[in-house]
Amino acid sequence: MGQASPASLLICEHCDTVYRRRALECGEVACCPRCRAVLERHHRLGVNSLLALLLTAMIVFVQANIWPIVTLGLNGQYSATTLWGMIITMWQQQAQVVAVLAACTLFFFPMAKMLMMGWLLWFARRGRRAPGFVPLMVGLHRIGPWTMSEVFVLGALVAIVKAHVYFEVIADPGIYAYAVLTLLITIFSGVDLRLLWDETAESPT
Ligand SMILES: [Zn+2]
To answer: What separation in Å is there between the alpha carbon of 171 and the centre of ligand 1?
Structure first.
């Protein structure tokens, strides 16, 4: 019996069945025959394209946070607000819990996620594991469900339509930046970051 190296084996996350890995064709998905869970997908995007995409997301993220999101007009008075303007207003209106939740899911978690991914990808480009590779990979996995820009964009659109009854509502560039960011996040959520385990070698210590 030949010895299989750990890299040539694949373990189903759901039922723990072990499989021998084979190279996937473009667009192919390997499924577990026992429980139908996805084992592995073909990676269309390499480390370099992911890094480029991440850089784009970071630029859009900065714009989404700096630019005003909506302008509300009432009796000829206009007031534009940014995401941070909204969060500060919520804080002052005794809605501290909502303010903290919004700040975390729309700002701190996405930012932490992008910085962590950028750090990992930057080293992966040269086939190396970044310092703190394992805790960061675990952290990224945990933080995943807590970035909710897509929920925010939908909520903001609904609010804009509703507020139209009472105010003059003008959508500002910030909301479009958020829409683009949502698109980029959707692309990223389809990327299986586990590929970094395979593409990087453990550095000799
Ligand atoms: Zn399985």
So the answer is: 47
Distance 138 CA to ligand 1 centre (A): 21
The Å distance, Cα 13 to ligand 1 centre, comes to 7
- The mean per-residue pLDDT over the stretch 165-175 comes to 83
For residue 45, give every residue at least 6 positions away whose Cβ sits within 8 Å of its Cβ, in sequence order, or none: 53, 191
Closest to 136 (Cα-Cα) out of 126, 146, 127, 144: 144
Question: Cα of 20 to ligand 1 centre, how many Å?
Answer: 13
Q: Beta-strand (E) ranges in the chain?
A: 9-11, 18-20, 29-31, 38-41, 70-74, 77-81, 168-171
- Between helix 149-163 and helix 173-189 the angle, nearest 10°, is 150
Ligand 1 centroid vs 19 CA: distance in angstroms? 10
- The phi-psi region of residue 27 (left if phi > 0; otherwise alpha if psi is between -120 and 50; otherwise beta) is left
What is d(CA 42, CA 194) in angstroms, rounded to the nearest whole number? 12
Task: Check pLDDT > 60 for residue 196.
Answer: yes
Query: Cβ(147)–Cβ(110) under 8 Å?
Result: yes
Q: What's the gap in Å between 37 CA and the centre of ligand 1?
A: 6
The pTM assigned to this predicted structure is 0.73
